[in-house]
Design brief:
The protein is an alpha+beta fold. The protein has one domain: Peptide deformylase (Peptide Deformylase). It contains 3 helices and 7 strands, in the order αβββββββαα. A 5-stranded antiparallel β-sheet has the order 1-2-3-6-7. The protein has a two-stranded antiparallel ribbon with strand order 4-5. A hairpin with a 2-residue loop joins strand 4 and strand 5.
Length: 184
């Protein structure tokens, strides 16, 4: 039996879109009441896909769903504490900045230092439609901002210089061609 990969997911996993897929650059629409069943079915599959990849965040557009939804789990102390965020929005950011190395499941193997606000306040709906709020700092703040960027068609490479971005995207294209050749 073959191993599941982002390109060939298992039965509960979802295929992860890879740059330059145009859906990664589209702005997502708000989740409405009519989307409740879709979102409830999508959330566990997104979490399973994120954990298998492995990653610490995954936004709906990365799996081809243009809905304002993402899942996050930084797995502090190796304990799973997943957040499922529906219609998330940042309500406040700190003036202090933090620079962290970021990567993305849609840009496999590519990493760059990105500077973002060090702390954020966030609100969203959970799967039951209840309002939630959170103040985050550190890795969680970075991860949340990264995933919310996806909902607006923004990638982490949009936060770095054009020179670094172009180098990274060329390397990704080269890596993907090599993977395709090896798969044949």
């Amino acid at each position: 039996m073959s191993e599941a990969t982002p390109e060939r997911p298992g039965p509960d996993l979802l295929p992860i879109l890879i740059v330059p897929d145009a859906r990664l650059r589209q702005k997502c629409r708000a989740v409405g009441p009519a989307d409740a069943d879709v979102v409830r079915a999508l959330a566990p599959r997104m979490l399973a896909t994120m954990y298998k990849a492995p990653g610490i965040g995954l936004a709906a557009p990365q799996v081809g769903q243009l809905l304002r939804m993402c899942v996050v789990d930084i797995q502090k102390d190796d304990v799973r504490e997943p957040l499922i965020l529906v219609n998330p929005e940042i309500t406040a950011v700190s003036k202090d900045l933090s620079t962290r190395e970021e990567g993305c499941l849609s840009l496999p193997g590519q990493y760059a230092d990105v500077t973002r606000p060090a702390e954020v306040k966030l609100r969203w709906l959970d799967l039951d439609g209840s309002k939630q709020e959170l103040h985050a700092d550190g890795l969680l703040a970075t991860c949340l901002q990264h995933e919310l960027d996806h909902l607006d068609g923004v990638l982490f490479v949009d936060h770095i210089s054009a020179l670094k971005r172009n180098m990274l995207l060329r390397k990704l294209a080269k890596d993907m061609k090599l993977r395709q050749r090896e798969a044949m």
